[in-house]
């Protein structure tokens, strides 16, 4: 018998059924503006590396770009786009488009949560745990959760990378994490950079603490009830570098 699936009483076609069953895989998330993407090559490299690790197969770059163009259609120029490579009967490339997202102005409050992702360096298609952690943090009045080890070492945010910048040096956590695309673009800044073990108690003693993801850059204003210093000049310098990154055309 052929496998079937239904949603709210409606049978799904084959493609929708395969999408519903695709729980194993990886993805990348990007912001599209005027049909351009920052760091498109880095997104493709991320997908290629994860594809080899999870599926033992090379990525079809043409299928990725074709899926992005298809989901944008002829009318969308700005969107939040995700590209998934998931396995139903075989690895398949899928893309989704949603309204564009901008980074919240902040400063954001964050709260540490003890949780470490399996294969942290892979952006995994199934993200129930992170989604739940993020929702719980939001209900408690925080803009993001910081994922930590049992002894308090910070690795990353639930959907972000965390860094600190004092105007002269960029500091990143030294822990297993997803090496985010925006983080990689910031690593191109011509300033000294280092990775070091970081705990929540260290953050008030650093420069401007910030979060970054495909939405952009967000200053952090507090960890739980502890206020962090705000350095507008440091944030401006980070944003100037990020805003100066070239946008790669999709067409």
From TrEMBL:
Statement: the UniProt record of this protein carries the keyword Cell division: no
Its recorded name reads Aminotransferase class IV family protein
- Database matches in NCBIfam families: PRK09266.1 (NF006734)
Provide the species name.
Answer: Nonomuraea rosea
Membrane-crossing ranges are none
Q: Which Gene3D superfamilies match?
A: 3.30.470.10, D-amino Acid Aminotransferase, subunit A, domain 2
Q: Which UniProt keywords apply?
A: Aminotransferase, Transferase
From the UniProt record, which GO molecular function terms apply?
transaminase activity
Read off the InterPro entries from this record.
Aminotrans_IV, Aminotransferase-like, BCAT-like_C, BCAT-like_N
What's the superkingdom here?
Answer: Bacteria
